[in-house]
Amino acid sequence: MVLYFSATGNTEYVAKKIAKMTGDEALDLLKRIKEKDYSPIRSRKPFVICSPIYVCEMPGFFVAFIRKLTLKGNRRVYFVTTSGGYAGMSGVTAKKIAKKKGMIFMGHKDIKMPPNYPVSKRYKLLSPAECVKRLRAAAKEIRTVAALIKRGEPVRDRHVFLFEKLIIIPFNPVWVRLKHSTKQFSVTDDCIGCGKCAARCPLGRITMVDRKPAWKGICAHCMACIANCPVEAIEYAHVKKGVEKYRIGKYLRKK
Ligand SMILES: Cc1cc2nc3c(=O)[nH]c(=O)nc-3n(C[C@H](O)[C@H](O)[C@H](O)COP(=O)(O)O)c2cc1C
Predict the structure, then answer these.
(1) 51 CB within 6 A, ligand 1
(2) How many domains, in total, are found in the chain?
(3) Ligand 1 pocket, 85 CB below 6 A?
(4) How far is CA 126 from CA 84, 133, 169, 245, in A?
(5) Which atom of ligand 1 is closest in space to residue 221's alpha carbon?
(6) 53 lines ligand 1 (CB under 6 A)
(7) Whose CA is nearest to atom 27 of ligand 1?
């Protein structure tokens, strides 16, 4: 069983491809995450847990959810992450989760996908042509990983050095606390009150007030609300209407 969370589509794309190539099924965890539903998931095939990378790690809410989730049946587990190119500590965390769950860790692999975070001025989005190129390269990586999973062989990612752990362990929670405020989210008059943003928020930080979204607290900055708004009515600081927002669907051929 391939389990995934995805905000802007990259991880969903990878998870569904792996499921198809391994003859397995893919399960979107969003509803379970929102409802804190940890009831057992059973699989005859090895579990493949897929997550995006936020701030050099799998998102805190995702790690907390997977830790509590009961996985029954097959005891082997793979982790596949998607990132803009740097998956930081995620492989180390994945191994720890597998151990804690008493499962056999079959390895972690990060797939380099187009970045999806327009809020960051440092890590800019790619141009459409670059996105297409990167997705083509990713397709090759996905095939390789899926073939290994299908054969029941381990997957490997690069070694995580001690100095990376020493930086990321304190950096990640501080960065999230300081930078992932929801204060700068706003909505324009274009909003049609469809509530898609609230439905897509994994942390339930959006409530609909008078048919308009209202944000509260610190969120994951996953970009699900901004990227999936059908009328581009959600803004964040400089990410205004007309500023490019990443969503994988723009670059996939319609079937
Ligand atoms: C808040 C945030 C932080 C991110 N941090 C990183 C990072 O540390 N390293 C990296 O390579 N990509 C980073 N990214 C890019 C995403 O990991 C990448 O685009 C991922 O494939 C998105 O997956 P999704 O479309 O399934 O949500 C970040 C994206 C967001 C929204």
Answers:
(1) no
(2) 2
(3) yes
(4) 10, 10, 28, 10
(5) 1
(6) yes
(7) 7
Q: Which of 110, 138, 163 is the last residue of a domain?
A: 163
Element containing residue 76 per DSSP (H, E): strand 76-83
CATH number of residue 151's parent domain: 3.40.50.360
> In whole angstroms, what is the distance from residue 103 CA to residue 118 CA?
37
Residue nearest to atom 2 of ligand 1 (CA): 54
Instruction: Give the C-alpha separation, 119 to 34, whole Å.
Output: 24
If asked whether residues 148 and 186 sit together in one domain, one would say: no
Residue 168 lies in a domain: no
One domain for residues 87 and 154:
yes
Structural domain including 154 reads 2-163
Report whether residue 82 contacts ligand 1, using a CB cutoff of 6 Å.
yes
Would you write out the chain's pLDDT as a tens digit for each of its 255 residues? 999 999 999 999 999 999 999 999 999 999 999 999 999 999 999 999 999 999 999 999 999 999 999 999 999 999 999 999 999 999 999 999 999 999 999 999 999 999 999 999 888 999 999 999 999 999 999 999 999 999 999 999 999 999 999 999 999 999 999 999 999 999 999 999 999 999 999 999 999 999 999 999 999 999 999 999 999 999 999 999 889 999 999 999 765
